[in-house]
Structures are given as structure tokens and as C-alpha cells.
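Weekend entry, working from home. Most of the wet-lab plans are on hold until the incubator is repaired, so I used the time to fold the two sequences that have been sitting in the queue since the last round of cloning. Logging both here for the record. First:
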Amino acid sequence: MIAWPVATLSNVGAHTGHFALTFAHMVGGTGMLFLGGLNLYLAARNNNFPLHRTIGKAYLAFGAFGAVVAMFVTASPAHKTPGGPILTAISVSLLTLATAWLCFAALGLRAARNRRFQSHSQWMVRSYVLVWSFVFCRIASRFVPMGDDAFIWLSWVGPLLVCEMVLQWPDGARKAQRSRPGV
């Protein structure tokens, strides 16, 4: 588990001055990973709607907390070269990722409140893909020899593009089939 050193408090020294924020981000992110997966399972089974709603609210709370804390950590001098710029390509990418998650989650919540459940489902899938993108980034960065600047963008934009293709493909196929003569 990537967050294990933070969860067990074994790397407090690696996060001097901002460990509390790092720990808070780990709590929010871990909550998102588990609650989001559970909620997608409940939605796919299409049962136990009250539980789905309750877990969804918790997912949004953990997510908003984790994303906002991530923005603070990313926009801080933590893990940056002393005297160097605060906003680097990596920090801008991570700020954009957190902002995208907040936007997708808000759009998903709005769609659910407006009873547009297909749209809600798609926005929440997008938000969950972004949650896992950070995990993918952390794991793959240890194995893939690529520059940090390019990799940090590709680690979440790539999965999001694949997600969008998967979400939109069925609609495009249905429209193409309806437009064929004799079908």
C-alpha cells in the first residue's frame, strides 16, 4: 500500500513541517478509494439505494477533504527545491487533477439531485478514475523511466481519455446503427 508509511507514521521525518496535511490527505484519499469502489459495486447491482446514497455522501466528503488538502500540500514549498519555484509542472498538474476531481464530483452530485442518473453515473465514474490515477502515478513512477513533467500529466489525462472513450462508445454505436438505412 502506497500510503502505508504515512498511515503507520513511519515517515514523519520525510514530511517535516507538513506531515499533518500529508496524513489528512492520506485519510481522504484512502476513504475515496474504498468508498468509491463500494458505491460503484452497489450502483452496478442496482440495489440498496439508501446505502448507495449514504456511501456516496461519505465518498464526496472524503474526496473533497482529500482534494482540498492535496491542493494545500501541492501549492506549498513541501518537497520543492529551497528557493525554487512553488508552481512546477508537477504541482500544476496535481492542482489541475484535484480541481478536475472536485468539478466532476460536483457535476455528479448535481446530476443526481436533478434525477439525471445516467449522467450522474458517468460523472462519478470519471471522478473515480481520477482517484485511481494518483495511485497509478505513484506506482508507475517507480518503474517507468520517463520525465516527471510528462509522466505526471499522462498518469491522469491518459486514463481519463480512455474512460471517456468507454463511456461515450455505446452512444456513438447506437447513433450509427440508427442512421443506417434498412436497420
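Second, folded right after the first finished:
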Amino acid sequence: MVLALALALALALALVVLVMVLVRILVRVLVVAVAVVLVLVGVAVTVVLVLCRVGLAFAWLRPTRQWWWWKGK
């Protein structure tokens, strides 16, 4: 009886430790993912601002003569 109780307690403790380790790993992964996303967004915003300064940003959105010709057909 005492052995079964000790075994159950050890199993519960091992499960708690496993959950804590997994949560810690998950938090680290989420922090790294958020940091990477923030860096990528910052780079994208910087590139768009630089291209706007140069005047090349969103040039692909301006309709071309070919587009107008295609729309007329």
C-alpha cells in the first residue's frame, strides 16, 4: 500500500516536472517566434519607407498601358 502510494506520488511528480519543462520550452519558442516576427515586420516597414523615399514603392500597383489595353478588350 505504501509502495503504491509512493509510486503514484513519484509518477505525479514526474508528470508535473515534465509539464513544467514543456511549458518552459513552449514559452521560449513563442518568445523567439514573436521576436522573429517583430524583426521581419521592422525590416519590411524599413524597406517600404526607403522605397517610398526613392519613389519606387507600390510602382507595381500603378496600372500600366498594357493593363488599360487589356481592360478595354
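Plan for Monday: verify the second prediction. The chain has a mean pLDDT of 85.
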